[in-house]
Amino acid sequence: MTESQRTPEQLKAQLKWALACERLTFALSPPAGADPESANGVLTAIERVQDALKELKLAFGSAGPAAHPDQAAH
């Protein structure tokens, strides 16, 4: 499936996932000089990643590894 074949819901889910991962990365390892207060919130960042993963699963119609047997071994 190419990017042009993805539905708007799939693209939105991918963007949400990417942003959630960036937030988690920042919370776990803030760049030098970052405001310490803005780096707090690891638990919130983890919750956003979990929510984004749920949205990805819904958007792509996957209930997990059982939906893709070729991926179950990974």
Question: How is this structure best summarized?
Answer:
The chain is 59% helix and 0% strand.
Salient structural properties:
74 residues, mainly alpha, 0% strand, elongated, disordered C terminus
Integer count of domains: 1
* Shape type: elongated
SSE string, helices as H and strands as E: HHH
What profile does the largest beta sheet have? none
Terminal-residue CA separation: 20 Å
> In which range does the helix fraction lie?
55-70%
Number of beta-strand segments: 0
Determine the strand fraction and express it as a percent band. Answer: under 5%
Average pLDDT works out at: 80
Low confidence ranges: 65-74
Radius of gyration: 15 Å
Coarse structural class: mainly alpha
- With helices defined by DSSP (H or I, 4 residues minimum), what is the helix count? 3
Write a structural description.
By secondary structure, this protein is mainly α. It has one domain (3-62). The protein contains 3 helices and no strands. Helix 1 runs antiparallel to helix 3. The longest helix has 21 residues, at 8-28. The chain is elongated, with a radius of gyration of 15 Å. Residues 65-74 have low confidence and may be disordered.
